[in-house]
Amino acid sequence: xxxxxxxxxxxxxxxxxxxxxxxxxxxxxxxxxxxxxxxxxxxxxxxxxxxxxxxxxxxxxxxxxxxxxxxxxxxxxxxxxxxxxxxxxxxxxxxxxxxxxxxxxxxxxxxxxxxxxxxxxxxxxxxxxxxxxxxxxxxxxxxxxxxxxxxxxxxxxxxxxxxxxxxxxxxxxxxxxxxxxxxxxxxxxxxxxxxxxx
Length: 198
Prior knowledge:
It is a single chain. By secondary structure, the protein is α/β, with parallel strands linked by helices. It has a single domain, classed as P-loop containing nucleotide triphosphate hydrolases (Rossmann fold). It is 54% helix and 13% strand. The chain is built from 9 helices and 5 strands; from the N terminus they run E-H-E-H-H-H-H-E-E-H-H-H-E-H. Strands 2-3-1-4-5 form a 5-stranded parallel beta sheet, sandwiched between helices. 29% of the residues are buried.
C-alpha cells in the first residue's frame, strides 16, 4: 500500500480538496477526525487534556475546542504540551486505520493532516500533496468561517509553517486560489498520477 500525505495551510481549502479526492474514490484518513476521536468523552486522551488544561471540558463532558484553541494558539509552550498528549495517540490510531485498509486490499490511502510537514510525518510517505492559496484568501476564509479578528487570524497563520516553505516538501501542489472547477481539474490530474504510479 502507498500512503500519500495531503496538507495545506490553515484555510487554504484542504478540506475541500480532500472531499474532491473522496469523490474520485480515494480512501482518506483525516487527522482532524482522528484527533477528535482520541479526545471523545470518556477517553484517556480527554482525561489527560482535562488534567493539563483545566476548564476546557464543558458541562456535558465534551472538549471545549474554542477554549482550548484560545490557550494553545496564543502560547507555543501550551501548544507543544497539547501536541505531546495528542500526537502519540493520533499516530497509533492512524497506524491502526491504515493497517485495516491495507488488509481490505486498498492500494492507496491519503493521509490528510494540517501539520504533516511540521511534525516530520512527510518523511515516511510516498508523496505529499500541498493545497495552497494566497494569504489574502486564507485571511478572508478565516474571518468568514470562524469569525476571527485580525489578531487571532495572524496568530493562527503564525502557528503554522508558511506555505512557501511547505512547497519544498511537496510532490504535487494544488493551487486553490481560483475557481473550484480549476481546483477540481488539478485534483483529478493528481489522482490519476498517484493511481498510475502505484
